Every structure is written in C-alpha cells, then in structure tokens.
Amino acid sequence: MCVEQRHAIDYIRTLVPTNAVFADIGARTGIFTELIAKYGYEVFAVEPNADMREQLAITLAPFPKTHIADGRAEATTLDDNSVDVITNAQALNRFDLDLFRAECLRIGKPNPIVISLYNDDEVKGEYKGSPRYKKSTGAFYRNPVVREFPNPVYFTREKWLLYYLSMEGVPQESDAGYEVYTAELNEAFNRDNVDGVLCLKQITVVYSERFELR
Fold this sequence. Notes:
Blueprint: H1 6-15, E1 21-25, H2 31-37, E2 42-46, H3 50-60, E3 66-69, E4 83-89, H4 97-107, E5 108-123, E6 126-127, H5 131-140, E7 145-150, E8 153-155, H6 157-165, H7 178-192, E9 198-200, E10 202-210
Parallel strand pairs: 1-2, 1-4, 2-3, 4-5
Antiparallel strand pairs: 5-6, 5-10, 7-10, 8-9
Helix pairs in contact: 6-7
C-alpha cells in the first residue's frame, strides 16, 4: 500500500481486540505495517527479502513494539498461537494459499482474524476488481466480509514515477524497455496533472474472515 489508508485502518481497528498482536505478512518496506504500528499495536513484520528488510527496519525504527522476522508467508518463523490478527497488503497473490492458510492457523491464537487489503483503480466511477487479486482472494477465503473504501492518491511527478517503477514486473533501469516505459509514465503525468499534482482515483478493498480449525 502506498498512501494514507485512514478509512481502511479505522475499519480494521473495529474488527480487532484493543491489545491485538498483529503479524503483517509480506511487509516489504513497511508502508502498511507503519500504519498499524502508529496506533501502538504490537506488530511482527514478516519479509523474506533482505533489501526490503533493511528499509523495513528504517520505517519501523520509531515504533518499539514492532519486530522484524526473516520469513515467508508459508513459513513465518513466528511462534505457535502468538498473534491475534494476520494481515497482508497487496501480497496474497504471491503466496502458496494452502500453505499460508495452514501457517495462519499455526501462528494465530484460537480463531484468528485474517485480513487482506489491496488497492485498485476506479474506472469511470466503478470498482472493476483486479483479476489477479480476485483470483487469490476467491481461492483463499471461504466466507469473507468485503468492504471497499474510496482512496484517491495524489502524486508529484517524482512520486508518480517511483510508484509505478516499484511494481513487480515493470522494466528497470538496466532493461531495454525502461526508457519507453518511463516516457509513457511522464506523458501520462503531463496529460493528467493539475498544477503539478496528479490524482489517481483508487479503491481500497478489505477482505476479512475469522479462521477456524476444521
């Protein structure tokens, strides 16, 4: 997640115990983790990539109740029955869903709540749903509660470029298609910005479900 998620976070806080312990899986650089930590929750941020963990440590440095774990969704390294809430932001589609479900039941206290969030573009005033996220949430959750929150994102040119260049699968600086890709991004910014700021209309979608042993 890349921007302020106040409405989604406020909603999540209504779902969890006051002193909830979170595990944020696939935390990457900690953009979403930080939003949880700001409210004083204890949070275990799980991230397998060493470079991401380095930045994660910087992001979470102001929050003494946060912990960083070198682990994967399928093997978090967290203790059995240690967390109340398990979150993942823009990450579920990268997990082995069966193994992740088993890991949620292992690390969660009895009947943990599992929450997935993702941002998607709003198209002509309607949320269309990204196929890659709908496929993973549809396969993972059995009876979820789904909520959607308007989430307009405001970009300067620098943040606009960083936002798209940080996505998986896009050309990087050493790739042949990098110059063409960045030129297209700059063209889009030039076309749609107002006074040097571009607004991208997005929806934040929140899936939540309480998991039970069967």
